[in-house]
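Re-run with default settings, no changes from the original entry. Doing this only to confirm the output is reproducible before filing.
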Amino acid sequence: MNHKAAPKTANAEKVYHVKKQDLPLSCPSADMALWNSHPKVYLSVEKTGEAVCEYCGAKYILDAE
């Protein structure tokens, strides 16, 4: 069988570094286009220092000040 690979979801392979002043953190963030993305979700990065969006797979890392 010939299977086509599924198209990659937006932001699936991107890593974003954020600072404490960027909190509360949401994906998509304010600088991302909302019309072609997914519903806004809030992500908690305070405890572990990182979070992955359940919709698009974007990884967010909280940088030390």
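The CA atoms of residues 12 and 57 lie 5 Å apart. The beta strands are 15-18, 25-27, 41-43, 50-52, 59-62.
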